[in-house]
Amino acid sequence: MKTLALFVVVITGAMLIYAGQDLPAFGDINSPSYQAPMTQYFIENSETESGVTNIVTALLASYRGYDTLGETAVIFTAGMAVMLLLRRRER
Amino acid sequence: MSRIQESVIIRTVVRIMVPFIQLFALYVIMHGASGPGGGFQGGVIFGAAIILYAMIYGIAEGKRKMSDALDKILASTGLTIFAATGLACIVCGGMFLQYNAVPLLPDPALVSKYLIDLVEIGIGITVLAVMISLFFDISPPESESEEVEE
Amino acid sequence: MSGIIDVVYAEYNYWIYVTLMMIGFYAMIAKKNLIKKIIGANIFQTAIFLFYISLADVTGGTAPILVGGHGGEHAEHVEHAAEVIYTNPVPHCLILTAIVVAVSTTAVALALIIRIYNEYGSIEEDVILAARRELQPEFSEHARQKGVAEVGEQ
Fold this sequence. Notes:
The complex is a heterotrimer of chains A (91), B (150) and C (154). Chain A is mainly alpha-helical and 91 residues long.
């Protein structure tokens, strides 16, 4: 059973490394994700549009604000779920 | 069965350190707009301060500082602040979370900055309350009657 | 030979994250202990986080916080700032939220394991399944019939 698991894991890792050959090199400024128009737009315009110098915060709270609201709801729900699962009855 | 007391050095150092950790957490939350930081990180640091206190002084003492009812109230308050900020933008004629639409100040970018700060505070409150409640829920149950006797 | 070394060195971040992912994946599927499975899932998630963060890096780039910020007060700084290279902010933002979800799922999983331990007195998968068969004979009956059906199909 453990041999089978090891086999599956090694096969997956070999496939990922094979696929990783096509990915951009570490720190490459010409990588597609950095040269994408959206990334350049965020770096150039985030301060004038949201008034925040930290681009990550501008993305997090302004451009992706709806997503962040969902994240906050997720941790709130996780807290409530753990409370429901573990808290003993007080009465 | 008595709870093992930590040594006096650890207790004193923790008592001194906790306020500074909390101050640092507030700095991280408020600094999210102009430097490294933000609501998630600062909330976790603030929660870690309370968790450190509860680990050294015992769960019951920690719950005296941060009761379960307060936890629930804070967790829902933070989420409400976030959602209310978004709804305020709708009321002022913009889209959901379009901060520029709120006519608080003449400069829309400055309004956006302050509202982002408000949103970060909301995130921080929720995260700190949830972190503390997770720790208290998962920690092993202590016999509370003995704690009262001490 | 030197060509292979160059390839490995240029993309060593992928090798590291693939290795971490393999460790986590192995722990998830081979270990019987539920806590170890959760640890494996966390290592797996960390590998994904590292992958994204390494994609964001740019050689010579600084953190994505605008140099000399605060609008027009430091106009000369802003002019100078046009030459600054920033790393990619988008993966940072994605991973910041993904870490929070990782913490939440880990907390819920640990809570479920605590409940399982309270019910069955063990966190070993074999013991739990055996206890469940003992408690519910129809469970093992169902599993046996399912196994027979699968054999029949083959």
